[in-house]
Specification:
single chain; about 220 residues; alpha/beta; Rossmann fold; 5-stranded parallel beta sheet; 3-stranded antiparallel beta sheet; 8 helices; about 45% helix; about 15% strand; binds zinc ion
């Protein structure tokens, strides 16, 4: 089973992708990890990408697509993948279809994890980070005013510039503008399923499994 995961920053997409991969035996293919892997290992594709990045240019689609194609041929993807952060545009979505076709498989579903903007503003703008150990806390869900870790005793927590409410709203606006053509593309193909990303982690996982038409594996059931 091959799935594309879409959802705004702060939607819990990465967490849910990890849980589903674990439960369904899929590989989590996150575009950020692909770039880090290719850059850190100085692969041919990594070298090409770095040349653009050092000039401050966007890495062209063909390099990103080649990284994805490479990744989709690794043995851990045999049961399928959850793609996270790729594709971002309809042309990338078409390239992905071509890769799957070449590998003798196909994309099964596209999941959009839907969380209202104001809920995301609440989640992200409550996030606090320890200057010393980078641990993450939350004003509401995990309230601390100083880091409790011994070696950070007394260290004050701070809010990243990116997490200020006005910055979060601006990031969400950009996300929606960039993603809506892709969402429309998959909706028109009848591949899009929308799942609410509000609620407990376990409830959202259950809703995702149902939307994907997957029975919860018996050993994972709590009843
Ligand atoms: Zn700390």
């Amino acid at each position: 089973m091959n799935i594309v995961f879409l959802g705004p920053p702060g939607s819990g997409k990465g967490t849910q992708a990890d849980i589903l991969c674990e439960q369904l035996g899929l590989a989590h293919v996150a575009s950020g990890d692909l770039f880090r892997y290719n850059l850190n290992n100085d692969t041919e594709l990594g070298k090409k990408a770095r040349a653009y990045m050092e000039r401050g240019d966007l890495v062209p689609d063909d390099i990103t697509i080649a990284m994805v194609k490479d990744r989709l041929q690794q043995p851990d993807t045999a049961q399928g993948v959850i793609l996270d952060g790729f594709p971002r545009t309809p042309p990338q979505a078409e390239a992905l279809e071509a890769i799957f076709a070449e590998l003798g498989t196909s994309l099964d579903k596209v999941v959009y994890l839907n969380v209202p903007d104001e809920e995301i503003v609440l989640r992200l703008s409550g996030r606090l980070i320890c200057r010393k150990c980078q641990a993450t806390f939350h004003k509401v869900y995990n309230p601390f005013t100083t880091c409790p870790h011994g070696e950070c005793n007394g260290e004050y927590l701070y809010q990243r510039e990116d997490d200020k409410p006005e910055t979060v709203r601006a990031r969400l606006k950009v996300y929606h503008e960039q993603t809506s053509p892709l969402v429309d593309y998959y909706r028109q193909k009848g591949m899009l399923v929308e799942v609410s990303g509000v609620g407990s982690i376990a409830d959202i996982t259950a809703a995702l499994l149902e939307a994907l038409g997957v029975e919860t594996p018996p050993e994972k059931r709590s009843d």
